[in-house]
Amino acid sequence: MSEKTRVHPWLLAARPRTLTASVAPVLVGTALARGLGQEAVAWPLAVLALASATFIQIGTNLVNDAADFERGADTHDRRGPIRATQTGLLTPRQVKLGAAGAFAFAALLGIPLLYAGGTPILVIGVLSIIAGCAYTTGPMPLAYVGLGEIFVLLFFGLAAVKGTAYVVAGQAFTPWAELAALQVGLQSATLLAINNLRDAAGDARAGKRTLAVRFGPRFGRWEIAALVVGPFAGGAGWWAAERALASWLPLLCLPLAWTLLRRVWSEEPGTRSNQHLAMSARLQLVFASLLAAGLVL
After folding, report:
1. Other beta carbons less than 10 A from residue 243's beta carbon
2. Dihedral sign, Cα of residue 262, residue 226, residue 146, residue 12
3. N- to C-terminal Cα distance for the chain?
4. 268: left (phi over 0), alpha (psi -120 to 50) or beta
5. Per-residue pLDDT tens for 118-158?
6. Is 291 exposed, middle or buried (0-12, 13-18, 19+ CB in 10 A)?
7. pLDDT in tens, 198-251
8. Are 261 and 224 in contact (CB under 8 A)?
9. How many Å apart are CA 227 and CA 232, to the nearest integer?
10. DSSP states along the chain
11. pTM of the entire predicted model
12. What is the pLDDT of residues 83-102, one digit of tens each?
């Protein structure tokens, strides 16, 4: 049975395998608030932050599904998982309406967060939704001019981790949040870099100038290597902060990171890159869980 017949079209369009990019920053941000000086953490707000972030990412994925099809980046010969719009399972209009619904639901979930966190949370929420649309739409889509990784670092790293820590800690700015945000953001960018390396040939034909298209597959592999190694190197910062567990616990997933890099370098970009993408998502979730445990214990 094909993926097309087994999976509901809306589930395909939401791209659930990539949603670790929403889970990881909320997990780490909450652990930051709990582990670095806050005895009382607002757990219901952490759950709402997770749900809101997830729906913002789903909305972004839906916009991307429709926009890439309309711009010619998703065609019948794409190497990645099938897309709901590209295969005709959903129309572009349906997917765009779904994206609007996801963003609206994320905003609704964010009302208690706004009440608890004030203006900073409002700014993060509004900019996240705007950026989610601007990623593949508008006069200068971020993904089409090679700014996708910057988008991910800012919104799935800095904004999500620091915003979560801020709101669940009762409007307290948490020390070392930038380091944790960088670690999480780099791993989210890894997902994008693997995706872009796989799709480089089709993206080039569609005028989607990702970094893998601009500088070639060898650069794409080095970029992935740097993004994978970076979060582990960040452990030195936690050692300096006298958070030893946060420094070495994530090292337990080094074998998974090594396997991912070995496969990215030894295998040509293609359908097997989808396995690399799934492995990168697992790496992010395991790393974030170990980092969170190191921050709390």
Report:
1. 21
2. positive
3. 45
4. beta
5. 999 999 999 999 999 999 998 889 999 999 999 999 999 99
6. buried
7. 999 889 988 999 999 999 999 999 999 999 999 999 999 999 989 999 999 999
8. yes
9. 10
10. --HHHHS-HHHHHH-GGGTHHHHHHHHHHHHHHHHTT-S---HHHHHHHHHHHHHHHHHHHHHHHHHHHHTTSS-TT-SSS--TTTTTSS-HHHHHHHHHHHHHHHHHHTHHHHHHH-HHHHHHHHHHHHHHHHTTSSSS-GGGGT-HHHHHHIIIIIIHHHHHHHHHTTS-PPTTHHHHHHHHHHHHHHHHHHHHHHTHHHHHHHT---HHHHH-HHHHHHHHHHHHHHHHHTHHHHHHTT-HHHHHGGGGGHHHHHHHHHHHHHS-SSTTHHHHHHHHHHHHHHHHHHHHHHHH-
11. 0.91
12. 889 888 899 999 999 999 99
185 CB-near residues (< 8 Å, 6+ apart) = 25, 152, 153, 154, 156, 157, 158, 161
Question: Which two three-digit tokens encode residue 120?
Answer: 């900073």
Out of 70-79, 141-150, 240-249, 270-279, which region has the weakest mean confidence (pLDDT)? 70-79
Structure tokens at 228: 């994978």
Task: Determine contact, residues 165/30, Cβ cutoff 8 Å.
Answer: yes
Tokens 């889509």 -> residue: 141
Q: Which token pair is 31? A: 């652990």
Kindly compute the dihedral angle of the four CA atoms of residues 46, 51, 55, 61, in this order, to the nearest 10 degrees.
Answer: 80
> Which structure tokens are listed for 57?
């990412």
Tokens of 267: 């295998």
Cβ proximity of 59 and 132 under 8 Å: yes
